[in-house]
Amino acid sequence: MGRRRVGTLSMAVLLIASGGIMMLAQMSRQPILEVAIKGWPLILFLLGGEILWYSYKSKDENIKIKYDLFSIFIICIVVVFHLTIYGMLQLDMVSKLDVMISSQHYSLKTPVEEFVLDSNIKKIIIDAPSLSKLTVRSNKGNKITALGTARVTANTKEKAQELLNTKNIVIHKTEDTLYLSFNIIDSGNAAIDHARITAYTLTIPNNRKVEINNGERIELLVDNLNNDWIVDDCYQTDIRIGETANIKINAFVDEREALKGNTEWMIEEKNSSNEDAEMETNALEDRIKGGVIQGEGTHKINVLNSRQVIVNQLM
């Protein structure tokens, strides 16, 4: 009694056809492979036709049909693979994977934004970004200048620049107060192209009262002040004082080790100074107060509710 192994011929034809299609796709640089993937049902026709042919031939002959399980298993693997690729093509996953592979990381500057302050503005209140570093510089002008640094993932620099075409600063005015906040850029598809502002730099006039609230890390670069500033509820506050500055810094912290920098801190265990009596609240009475004076200390920077305060004086 003879035997016919069903599945061996189908696997052989499938392997030969797949190799030929892949070679043509590479040589011609045409989307032949995509067309072949969409024609995966022909594999089932091939296997079914082989079974029918051997069944027909075995009716008049003393032949026993035996299925080549290994070959059929390989064919099933190929079918599943083609179905997966076909599904990825339908969902446009192939092009997305291509973009992911070709994507690069860029560090770009956002466009500079400028705002001229009205003469009636006496105070500036800044709501600092929670996930980005904020650097604030003082100047003698009458303008606020804003600039951001972004980390962008995209497949081209042009695409990366497009993701940054957004207004970063939001300003509201009420009588004599200007409120400034940040329109946080977190755009694009995180899996393909993505932009996030990592740092902002503000330049603001030194003759207005300034209040900075919230934020992860605040850096103040102060050459001189003609008014008082307050920094409240920031995790870390870095202050760099210019040589000609006439500034007094008051910082309220939970422990002495939180006061750092190249300056010599004057420590008070309790806020009892008459000069700063207007700042005393129940939340500050039991905290350690550190003081730094540069020059005559004409104007103050009061740092409240900060985990760490670093003051460096330029010598």
Counting DSSP E segments of at least 2 residues, the number of strands comes to 21
Poorly predicted regions are 271-275, 277-281
Q: What is the first-to-last residue Cα distance?
A: 103 Å
Sketch the major β-sheet.
Answer: 10 strands, mixed
- Residue share in helices? 25-40%
Q: What is the count of helical runs?
A: 6
Query: What is the CA-based Rg, rounded?
Result: 35 Å
Give the SSE string: EHHHEHHEEEEEHEEEEEEEEEEEEEE
Mean pLDDT: 78
Question: Would you mind describing this structure in some detail?
Answer:
The chain is of the alpha/beta class and 315 residues long. It has helices spanning 8-28, 32-38, 41-57, 69-90, 93-102, 157-162, and strands spanning 2-6, 63-67, 104-109, 113-116, 123-127, 133-139, 143-154, 169-174, 177-182, 186-187, 194-205, 209-213, 217-222, 229-232, 236-241, 247-253, 259-260, 266-268, 288-294, 299-304, 308-313. Helix content is 26%, strand content 39%. The strands form 3 sheets. Strands 3, 4, 6, 7, 10, 11, 13, 15, 17 and 21 form a 10-stranded mixed β-sheet that branches. Strands 8-9-5-12-14-20-16-19-18 form a 9-stranded mixed β-sheet, with no helix packed on it. Strands 1-2 form a two-stranded parallel ribbon. Strand 10 and strand 11 (194-205) form a beta hairpin. Helix 1 (8-28) packs parallel to helix 4. The chain is elongated.
